[in-house]
Design brief:
The protein is α+β, with helices and mostly antiparallel strands and about 180 residues long. The chain contains 5 helices and 5 strands.
Length: about 180
C-alpha cells in the first residue's frame, strides 16, 4: 500500500527521502502521499522492502525496461542489508519511506535510516576477484591499483592513483572511499 489514510479518510502524508539516480544530485527529505511517490519515481511503483533498516524503497516498476540509470545509493543499501538481492539492481529515482504499518500503509522514514542515507561517511570496498591471487591481477589495471594495497594491508595507498580517487570519491550512502582519498588517513 502507499501513504496511509487519516481517521477522516483523507490520504495521509509520510515523511520520506527522495534519492535521485545520479550520485551528484542531492537527496531531498519530502512529505509524500501515494500520488507524490509515483510522480517522484516517474511512473508505476515497485516496492522493495529492506527490513533491517525498517524501510520500503519505491522505484519505477518499468525502470529496467526504460533503461533508467542505476541508482547506486539505494542499490548498495539494499545489497548490504539484503545480501540475497545482490543479483538485482534498482534504477531511476527512488523514494524511501518507513516500512508499512499493520494496515499496510507507509510510515515515516525511521530517523536511523534517514541518517544512514544522509550523514556523510567513509565506506570501503572488498573486491573478491574469484580467488585470484594479487600476483594474478593484470599489472597497471585499475583493479590492481585497488587490490595490491588492500592485500598488502595498506588501504590508504588505494587513493594515490588519480583515477581511483575520482572513482572512489562520493557523498552519502553512495560513498565508496579509501582512508586516504580525502586525506584523513
Amino acid at each position: 500500500m502507499f501513504a496511509g489514510r487519516s481517521q477522516e479518510g483523507e490520504e495521509a502524508m509520510v515523511k520520506g527521502l527522495y534519492v535521485p539516480a545520479h550520485d551528484g544530485e542531492p537527496l531531498e527529505v519530502r512529505d509524500f502521499d501515494g500520488d507524490a511517490i509515483g510522480t517522484a519515481v516517474g511512473g508505476l511503483m515497485e516496492a522493495v522492502d529492506v527490513p533491517p533498516l525498517g524501510i520500503t524503497v519505491y522505484v519505477n516498476e518499468e525502470g529496467l525496461i526504460h533503461h533508467l540509470p542505476f541508482n547506486s545509493r539505494v542499490s548498495f543499501a539494499w545489497w548490504y542489508y539484503v545480501p540475497q538481492a545482490r543479483r538485482s539492481m534498482l534504477v531511476g529515482g527512488a523514494v524511501v519511506v518507513g516500512e508499512p504499518d499493520i494496515d499496510g500503509a507507509d510510515t515515516d522514514i525511521p530517523a536511523e535510516a534517514l541518517e544512514t542515507f544522509t550523514k556523510p561517511r567513509h565506506w570501503g570496498i572488498l573486491i573478491d576477484p574469484g580467488g585470484m591471487p594479487a600476483s594474478g591481477v593484470m599489472p597497471d589495471t585499475m583493479l590492481n591499483h585497488v587490490l595490491r594495497p588492500l592485500i598488502a594491508g595498506r588501504p590508504q595507498k588505494v587513493g594515490e592513483h588519480r583515477a581511483i580517487r575520482q572513482l572512489l570519491r562520493r557523498d552519502g550512502l553512495g560513498a565508496v572511499v579509501g582512508g586516504a582519498v580525502d586525506g584523513d588517513g
